[in-house]
Amino acid sequence: MPTCDDGPNAENIKPVISTVISVVVPTYNEAENLPVLVERLHKAFGGGYEVVVVDDSSPDGTALVAESLARDFPVRVVVRRGRWMGLAGAVVEGARAALGEVVVVMDADLQHPPEVAPLLAARVLAGADLAVGTRYGRGGGIEGGWPVARRIISRGASLLAKLLLPEARPLSDPMSGFFAARRACLSSISPTGRYKILLDVLSQCRPAEVVEVPYVFRPRHAGRSKLGLRHMADYVLQLMRITGWRPLKFALVGATGVGVAEAVLYALPLPYWLAAVPAIETSLTTNFALNNAWTFRDRKAPWLRGWLKYHVANLAGIAANYATSNALVLAGVSRYLAYVVGVVAGFLANYLLSETYVFGRKAVDISPRTSRRA
Prior knowledge:
With 374 residues, the chain is of the alpha/beta class. It folds into 2 domains: 3-242, Spore Coat Polysaccharide Biosynthesis Protein SpsA, Chain A (Alpha-Beta Complex), CATH 3.90.550; 246-364, no CATH class. It contains 12 helices and 10 strands. It has helices spanning 34-45, 62-69, 87-97, 117-125, 148-164, 183-186, 197-205, 229-242, 246-267, 272-295, 303-330, 335-358; strands at residues 3-4, 21-27, 49-55, 75-79, 102-105, 130-134, 141-142, 179-182, 210-214, 216-217. It has an 8-stranded mixed β-sheet with strand order 1-9-6-8-5-2-3-4, with helices on both faces. Helix 1 (34-45) links the parallel strand 2 and strand 3.
């Protein structure tokens, strides 16, 4: 579990840093925010830092503003041009251009308080592989609160990450875009999406020691939020890519199990109540074999033990389906809709237990390149 530096005045603590820290700031149309951000970073660090502004050819002149700031502050500017851009690629390019061994990643819109950046850097310098700014850990928060829809989107996205990615489960805020890591990690990333770079850090670098630093998420200083349907769709696709499309593979295997059960029922000239037993058992066994060989081929389970665990996982899925659908019917929901929701609940329970219990990742899978000396 990651540790958390809690405390209401965390943003007022100024650690002593004796090495160069690179703050990578991806930008697109942030000309109004950048001067305030750079000034506050300068006050927060005092010295021994640089700001690497990576701009995706902003039409509002963000790159020109950054270049003018470079006359008075340690600011360097990287301008990217091309069709496939986005925050994740900008962060990787900024890390490759960075001079510091430790890189802080943050947005330019001042929703991430610059005063917390030195705290994140200090935790990595003290030995952590990754320090994540959290809005949801003790001591963190969201200034002014969010509308219900925004809260649902944020919490739902975090829950989805935790369901699908084992590396995200220990974090209270796996969707955070405010974190510090070693340059060797960030510069080696191959982005799987355009926006949520932290998920790639967790899944590709496999940091062995992760800490969380709470902060209060602020309203945007100027400009408009860029969150939209394109971001949400990209996020779902990113999760699929990181997992190797496991949820879809798992669903396809489940569908083949229905066909196997139907074939057994057809082949056995027995009453249904008697033929159903070997039909169900055969489909469970073939499902386990396919998931072991295909869906989770990078972490295969021993046959007998895995087969037994897979039965437990499916019993839990059946229980989740039954409990959810019945609760919805009692609440007045149509039995047909309740059944569909129950199937989804059962699928999620089956997948989660298969991911964690049947085909759980082994400790030896942790990559040695995330050691403290990286």
